[in-house]
Amino acid sequence: MANSYEPPRPDYRLDGFEAATERTEDDFFSVTLSDDMLVPLAEHHSADGRNTYLLLYDRAAIWDIPGTAEYVTLHITRDTAQRTFGFAHERHPVIPLAQNWLIRQGCPAEAAELSQNHGPRPADVLTARLEDLLRANPDDRYTVLDHSTDHPCSFDFGIEVSTLVHDSHPASAHAPYRVFLEETTKDFRSYTMREGAFPTAEAADTWVRERSVPLPLAPAPDGAVVLRAEAARARSTVSSGVLAVPPAAVVPPRPASAAPARVRRSAP
């Protein structure tokens, strides 16, 4: 019988905890409804038990609205005295933006690095540099305006993600609207990221829709940008040849009866 790879489930560490409010309960249930489709890529649990940070890949995103981002971040906060929890969450088009969100929530930067070593790797140094910029987002220079993920769920085509941002850096004043274009090869072994520069958001949006000309590339990032070798290795392919984030299988979502148990608050 052929071996199959089943990724681990997210570790929320909520045994013995109740949602702090009914709204928290409902929101958490909604986000984790299909958590058998959420693949943990990075996680960190604080030593005092008060915080959990998760970076997850949503394999069910292909059944959502076309263009839906495939990465989900969660920051779970616990009141260890009251035994209650709250949480914040966000969707992100690319991993560096997800890591930036976790770091801003208080996750140690090294803990936001990917723990799964089976995904596609950066194809070149420029890709790694651009990812470093998005991950660090120095001085909040980038504001995400829009994004779209095109995942055909096929080994005949790769994945393409376009992220439109406004760049507030003075050097970008002539073309402050940037499109970060991430393209993963159809074998899902490597990917490139490139940065396009546009004078207006409308011009950037037109390029994304029409593709009538090549991407007008922004100048390459300064060579002084620190490359994170750990991040590049974390997304490299290992000898097993198994992908932690494979193309999502074309199967129907699981029935509602198989949904995870809801975290219930006690009656007053």
Q: How many separate helices?
A: 5
Strand content: 25-35%
Query: Over all CA atoms, what is the radius of gyration?
Result: 19 Å
Q: What is the helix fraction of residues, given as a range? A: 10-25%
Shape: globular
SSE series: EHEEEEHEHEEEEHH
Count the beta strands.
10
What spatial order of strands do you see in the largest sheet? 1-5-4-3-2
Straight-line N-to-C gap: 52 Å
> Which stretches are low in confidence, meaning pLDDT under 50 for 5 or more residues running?
224-244, 246-268
The largest pleated sheet is described as: 5 strands, mixed
The average pLDDT score comes to 84
Protein name: Glycosyl hydrolase
Q: How would you characterize the overall build of this protein?
A:
Helices cover 18% and strands 27% of the residues. The strands form 2 sheets. The chain has a 5-stranded mixed beta sheet with strand order 1-5-4-3-2. A 5-stranded mixed beta sheet has the order 6-10-9-8-7. 31% of the residues are buried. It has 5 helices and 10 strands, in the order E-H-E-E-E-E-H-E-H-E-E-E-E-H-H. With 268 residues, the chain is an alpha+beta fold. This is Glycosyl hydrolase.
What does this entry show, briefly?
The chain is an alpha+beta fold. Helix content is 18%, strand content 27%.
Secondary-structure map:
Layout: E1 18-19, H1 22-31, E2 38-45, E3 51-58, E4 71-79, E5 84-92, H2 95-104, E6 121-122, H3 125-136, E7 142-150, E8 160-167, E9 177-184, E10 190-198, H4 201-210, H5 229-234
Parallel strand pairs: 1-5, 6-10
Antiparallel strand pairs: 2-3, 3-4, 4-5, 7-8, 8-9, 9-10
Helix pairs in contact: 2-3
Protein name: Glycosyl hydrolase
